[in-house]
User: What shape does this take?
Amino acid sequence: MTNQPGWIKLAQERDGAVLQAGGAWTVEYAADLDRQVESLPKESAAQVLDLTEIDAIDTAGAWLLARASGQGEGQEIPWRNLAPEFQPLAERVLTAGPKVTPERPRARTITDWVADVGAGVEEVLAESLNLVAFFGEFVLATGRVIANPRRFRWVSLLVHIEQTGINALPIVGLISFLVGVVLAYQGADQLRQFNAQFLTVNMVGISVLREMGILLTAIVVAGRSGSAFTAQIGTMQVSEEVDALRTMGLDPMEVLVLPRVTALIITLPILTFFADLMGLFGGGIMYSVLVDQTFGQYVTRLNDVITPTMFWVGMVKAPVFAILIALVGCFEGLRVTGSAESVGKMTTRAVVEGIFLVIIFDALFSVLFSILSI
Assistant: This one.
């Protein structure tokens, strides 16, 4: 006679909640019994496990019953009414089974913090090496295109020039104008204490041309165009378009990366020049409002203060920042794996890394120009 499949349920009796089990608790029904045990309420408040209706039991069944009653987990529920012929096997399983103790979170020590710092440094070094290797691949692809100009994607270049340059003019101009206004306002307010408000022109001119114009433009471009590069290429990775390019014998470095980097090298200096103009214009508007001088007098004094060197100090940084932003954006885009979550994660990383590298290289440029007395 075939035994009925095992079952377990939570029942209410006069003395409280009781777990009731019956049928055959054998290995042939183990999968279904495991699901039943997993589906039991975690906080059942059962007082006892009633085994009156158990027809058959083996080692697998006894182990599952031990799990159901929480044996070894600090909340054991006693068994009752198990048939005498099954009791030796049940006792053997309960005795030999592992005692599970709840894992307590270990208090973090200084060693753990040092290990976290070391892991972070290792990750940064690996990321840096991969980015340098990616730059090497970009240089090789550039050499191939220079040797055979017909391989270059001119239409793609023009499209990206429009997207990264022309479409970015409004936001870059607005931010630069407002920063010029803030610089002039803060400068005039502080210099008023020394009766030297006329030096506001010096501060605005030097700050905008040497640092603020290019730095703010690069940060805006990193957040706008760098993230767009990562999202575009990352989406192509998810849809396997990049793999399709390789299958057709096309190099993604030439098709996807080179036009984007070249476009940003062209557009970032233009955006920087526009940002310089808007920053100086905003500073002039605020200067003429705060100081008893006209905008024409501001322009005249600006011509006396600034030099071509100040202008070129900012402009020289633009191509370098463009290469950094575009390479990081394309690099992270090609590292996207097959999920939308990965696209978002790599896009965020591209923006953070792009802005970080821009600031680091800006500091290096400042040190270099200081050493060269420029």
Notes: Residues 133-371 form one domain.
